[in-house]
Design brief:
Chain A is of the alpha+beta class. Helix content of chain A is 32%, strand content 25%. The first copy, chain A, contains 20 helices and 34 strands. In chain A, strands 1, 2, 10, 11, 12, 13, 15, 16, 17, 18 and 21 form an 11-stranded antiparallel beta sheet that branches. The first copy, chain A, has a 5-stranded antiparallel beta sheet with strand order 9-8-14-20-19, with no helix packed on it. In chain A, strands 22-29-30-31-34 form a 5-stranded antiparallel beta sheet. In chain A, helix 10 crosses helix 13. Chain A is globular and about 85 Å long. At the A-B interface, helix 8, strand 23, helix 14 and helix 15 of A face helix 8, strand 23, helix 14 and helix 15 of B.
């Protein structure tokens, strides 16, 4: 780990003491969100030190022109990004004529930040001596309301400690924001109107090109010692900013407070001409409730979420803090109610990865959402891809594929490819397999037979067609090969026969044929509809099976393992533990070509295949592959440690599994990869959940039954989690003494525990 | 071929009839240059149709920011480009109030363009009817003076044919120019001064960042029916443009003429404060001589060049026109007098490839310049790289190499890597070998023993160190391998054990050790100096030889050939002639990933190795490799057909060799690759020269002796060329009846003809 300043706590993330070097990291870690918008933990007041400002609105993105060298056919046309949106949190604070600015204060004492995950709010407090020697105590608290998801609420208090003071609160809205990752310094926002009435202000703006219309709004109240004061503000309005300055005269030790209610209304929810109207309504509701009542609603709303999704760990505060942080951030990012939204790798906590959808959703996030929410949430995530099918077919056509073959984009906002790196978009085609796997995984877990016949089969057929065309026959090997790919290990480019990709391709072809047969057998009418719609020919499936049967997998007789790709063994096989620490992480220390020809694995690749398809390999095979690949794995992708954790646990290597668990669960809190300031790794947080539930709990679904093989790390007394399985909630508690299961419904449920069938009865604790 | 509008002619390139669709192609083909500057064949007068404007000054470039996706360690920092420079050719022509514009004229008759290669000028004539019904005859002629290399001269005449006319000539200088290939729309030029005095005008400007200072200047004279007229111009001056409008009243059939003398002075030749002064001097000299006298000097200068470098072909006008066009353009681009300049792949005829230096110079251009110029010219080209050695070492250090290893950049202006494509800069490392090979080639041809001991050996040692470190040991193969490269065939990326690269690496290691031993033996003092300077250790050379001896080469037993790279045979080996014509060229029709995994070879790769190292392979081996690879070669690089021509000729396949000859020599004239409008393929033109001299003439140097194996294509009666070999000029004439050799000196010369030793005596024609 690379940082150790977050205080251990079961329910909160806490920072104590001010360190300008940690500001950007903390801005990521203390981010808040409510599914509809997100906000980095930027200070409300001016901060003149290094900072990374970020306010994001779900689904509001811009198609920035890509940066590639000489454009070649098939390169992605644009690089989509969820934009830094107009600033709604800003409050300039001027104390006796001097702006409060933590970067220039003479002295800062008792700085404390808390992200209270149980209740869903962020607070900050400190004592500061300004350059003008005024001494102030500052307290702030803010949250993004789950209940009113257009509203953010801030309570900000200043108490002069050494004398009376004139305090000016100047809440503002600022549309003059930029993106740090802009490729061409384009202007992203067009401000169409700035208005104010009474205590309210509005900035109407739409994104360039994509034309997402938004209204950013605010309204404030001033209190002195908790009593409302009616102060007439001085209004300042410029091209892209509007502010209200409230001057408050305070006595020594009197507390001046501002409540700022602010946020966004967007044309995803309202007509674009009614955004100001909608903003007024939202403000009216919020102001009427008041800060404290809204905060109470917030606590209740989070309490509901935790009821289902909490994982508690006894005896290991850091582990407990880690998993709750992960679950909290996942819920801040995506609540699953809108099939047009999805989960970006950084959620709403930074600009990297553009806020777009990657294969992370299908490979890592779906299990979490399936087990902790209503099944409709996971189904919404599947439907997101169904809605994009025609664009995926177009995408494949651009690359020369025919007959309705689909290649889903590596990165997308609206179904179109929108990545910044051509080599990944062309080569990292395994994402197409993960999208198919998610359909299988959803069906396996939920037992929902309707999705495949209604929508999923069309997706599967288009994906199978892609793999069939993408495989080519090697006369030399007398097998079908898949050339020129990048596997999950992005530290290799343009390799041949990546085991994971080839296996996924083979499986996709087989599974699609299974699904076709099953739909034909059980839902002939649906089959006919899909057959006509996709122009499916009987002989196609035979050809698919031929390719699946004759798929090539590189294998080393010497090591008795499948090779990650054809020429893996030609590399200089120096293990990671032989690398000097000064050269890690290699993606920051080495040139890219050196990484590409090294044996170092960015993230689980062959082992990812063993995770998806564990039924097809023996434990001994898993062990050999784990022993071979783990020593070359640098885990420089956030998506890596969780898979290794699950595999280590399966192999009974609990100490190693525990290390991987800490790494995945505290990846951001402890900044393992030296990059947390860029934002949090949201999608891998679902992998942390899998580490406990699938890794330690050993949860699987086998033949329609939930199955467990509970293990517990030495360091823990117990842990417990809940799973929503087919409309029943199972409560699992694992301790060193055994495991208990409880069911929250009226029907008994047969499960497997360590391969033995047992039945959980309602209202009875099953102890094993 | 894709166009057929250039009229066959022995000494000129001729276009007849105006076709707006050909304007951009002709702008490339009819380009003029004098080594110091170059000018596309843009019209002097306004042209409102599609055009690609280009005026270039040798060595004046800009480091444009590169476009890459997410920047990774070692990516090139900038993309250098020789800039489109202020326009010096422009002359607006207004006839009876209407601007002459070929795109809008009512009628154009007798349009004719001629690039007279014998004398080095470009002319244009046409009859046009303007929208206002004025009928005019227009004649223009221009050239870039070889004698006064800062001067371009234009003679432009207009004759009204149907009535008297008021003709306004408005010569101008325009600094408000842009580059089409600008990555970020940066401003490249900063104009620091616009001035005029009498008939002269000056624009002083320097490039941003690189700060190359230039003065663009002009002076004009007006004539009516060849008599000078003293007309006071109306001067127009704006931010970045200055023009002089001369109004001339002409009678019907009277000819109004303007002489415009213009060009650039640059701080490569003058102090930056004296550029206007230098311009005035250049103008004074030019104006004093006058257009016709300058033209005569031009003819004489070109006559001198042709004396040595001409190749004449009897019986095949198109073939003749092709080779002369190639030799002409090479001489327009680079005259070899300045070791700071080099030869960009497009010379001064377009923006692509940025005017930078590629490996083309070493692999293709050096033989031409060695044989047709003084040996100092080739030596200057070698010294160019010697001057860049420390930057090449820095470049390698950035990529993790140590101990003085050098990796020369793929593309450079000043020794730094400045390409737009990261994958090429990292992977296409074979250029390092070509730079070593050129040292060998120069020494082999010239017998100049001083270069290696003075400069070359340092370069060789640094290159050997690179190859030694870049090769890694494969336990699996029990050999040294070179992973993750791109060979000359850029239609494969990141492959392992590219035969050409591995062979070149092996050869470099061996040759460097040979040179070390030879310098140590013959020039101990030099050796000591270099040993100390490079910190060369004795054991290094042993290790180099070990790697050279144990280098791995992929080989197919089945085909009995070396494989282009490890996995070439895994590809779908469908031959080029089975591809539908509609899918060619594949680089315009296919997506990049499809190209990368196809077997199609952009340019000679394994065969390039057989060309460099032909002594090490038998004719049978060559034949097998030619037969295997040629059917997969699409020749979508200009550098490909010449190598295949040479190899086909060597195999006695003269019909095929002839086709390749036409393809290389008329690549641009007939636009084989659908892209001539982007500019000419200058460096490959030296390959055309090699096709005749080395391919048909079979010229080699063996054991210090010139050797020939003359062949002649069926379509030709005879051909002849000259070679400057070690200060003696040999004149070779090959006809169907035999070959004659003449020597232009006082010493007899023993040569080999078809492996037999014969002696050419001065003043005696040797006939064989």
């Amino acid at each position: 780990m690379n940082q150790d300043y977050i205080k251990p706590d079961n329910w909160s993330i806490i920072e104590e003491g001010f360190d300008a070097d940690q500001v950007k990291s903390s801005e990521s870690i203390f981010s808040i969100g409510n599914g509809a918008m997100g906000q980095r933990a930027n200070f409300e007041e001016l901060y003149s030190g290094p900072t990374f400002q970020g306010s994001y609105i779900a689904g509001v993105y811009y198609p920035d022109k890509t940066r590639v060298g000489w454009w070649k056919n098939g390169y992605p046309e644009y690089f989509a990004k969820v934009l830094n949106a107009p600033n709604w949190i800003g409050i300039n604070v001027i104390v006796n004529g001097e702006p409060l600015d933590l970067f220039t204060c003479k002295k800062i004492e008792g700085f404390r930040r808390e992200l209270n995950m149980k209740e869903g709010w962020l607070s900050r407090s400190f004592k500061a001596v300004l350059q003008n020697n005024t001494q102030v105590q500052v307290e702030s608290k803010r949250f993004l309301s789950l209940e009113l998801d257009e509203i953010g609420a801030i309570k900000y208090s200043v108490t002069p400690l050494n004398d009376n003071a004139e305090i000016i609160f100047e809440p503002y809205l600022d549309g003059g924001i930029t993106n740090e990752d802009s490729n061409w310094d384009d202007k992203f926002w067009n401000i169409t109107g700035i208005a104010h009435s009474d205590n309210q202000a509005f900035i109407e703006a739409h994104t360039m090109k994509t034309n997402f219309h938004t209204c950013t709004f605010m309204q404030s109240e001033i209190l002195v010692n908790n009593k409302r004061k009616d102060i007439k503000p001085k209004i300042f309005e410029a091209e892209d900013i509007i502010s209200f300055a409230y001057t408050v005269k305070t006595q020594k030790n009197q507390t001046a407070t501002i409540h700022k209610y602010a946020g966004y209304t967007v044309d995803r929810d309202h007509h674009q001409n009614e955004l100001v109207l909608a903003a007024k309504k939202a403000l009216a509701t919020a102001v009427k409730s008041g800060f404290e009542a809204l905060l109470k609603q917030q606590k209740n709303a989070w309490s509901e979420i935790w009821k289902m999704s909490d994982i508690s760990i006894e005896g290991d505060v850091k582990a407990q803090q880690g998993i709750r942080f992960n679950i909290f951030q996942l819920n801040q990012t995506y609540l699953g109610t809108d099939a047009h939204l999805n989960i970006g790798p950084k959620g709403f906590t930074g600009e990297k990865y553009g806020g777009s959808t990657y294969w992370d959703t299908e490979a890592y996030c779906i299990p979490f959402y399936m087990a902790t929410k209503d099944q409709q949430v996971a189904r919404n995530l599947l439907e997101y891809r169904y809605h994009h099918l025609s664009k995926a077919i177009e995408n494949a056509e651009k690359l020369g594929f025919t007959n309705g073959a689909a290649l889903y984009p590596m990165v997308t906002m609206n179904g179109e490819e929108c990545h910044n790196e051509w080599e990944i978009t062309f080569e990292e085609i395994h994402r197409n397999g993960a999208i198919a796997f998610a359909i299988y995984n959803y069906h396996r877990f939920t037992g929902d037979n309707s999705y495949i016949k209604e929508k999923g089969l069309e997706v599967l057929i288009a994906i199978a067609r892609f793999w069939y065309q993408r495989a080519t026959f090697s006369t030399l090997k007398n097998k079908y090969v898949i050339l020129g790919v990048t596997g999950p290990n992005e530290y290799e480019n343009n390799v041949n026969n990546n085991f994971y990709t080839n296996y996924l391709a083979k499986w996709c072809l087989e599974y699609t044929v299974d699904c076709i047969n099953s739909v034909k057998h059980n839902y002939l009418e649906d089959f006919e509809r899909i057959r006509v719609k996709t122009n499916l020919k009987g002989e196609e499936t035979y050809k698919w099976i031929e390719v699946a049967d004759d798929m090539y997998f590189p294998f080393s007789e010497e090591h008795n393992i499948y090779l990650q790709q054809d020429s893996f063994l030609d590399k200089e096989l120096i293990k990671v533990d032989k690398l000097p620490k000064s050269e890690r992480p290699i993606n920051q220390k080495w040139s890219w070509d050196r990484i590409l020809r090294s044996p170092y694995i960015k993230q689980a690749d062959t082992l990812q295949g063993f995770y998806f398809f564990e039924d097809r390999f023996t434990l001994e095979e898993l062990e050999r592959h784990f022993d071979f690949y783990e020593p070359f794995t640098v885990h420089e992708s956030s998506l890596s440690p969780c898979v290794h954790c699950i595999q280590a646990a399966k192999l009974g290597r609990m100490e190693q599994a525990y290390d991987f668990y800490l790494r995945t669960s505290r990846l951001d809190l402890d900044d393992y990869n030296h990059e947390v300031e860029e934002g949090l790794h949201i999608t891998s947080m679902a992998g942390t959940w899998m580490s406990i539930v699938e890794g330690f709990g050993g949860m699987r679904v086998n033949n329609e039954k939930l199955s467990f093989a509970p293990r517990i790390p030495e360091q823990w007394q117990s842990y417990s989690f809940k799973v929503n399985f087919r409309q029943q909630i199972i409560d699992v508690n694992v301790s060193k003494d055994g495991t208990t299961f409880k069911i929250n419904g009226r029907t008994p449920l047969q499960i497997l525990v360590n391969d033995k069938a047992v039945t959980i009865s309602p209202d009875n604790l099953l102890t094993i």
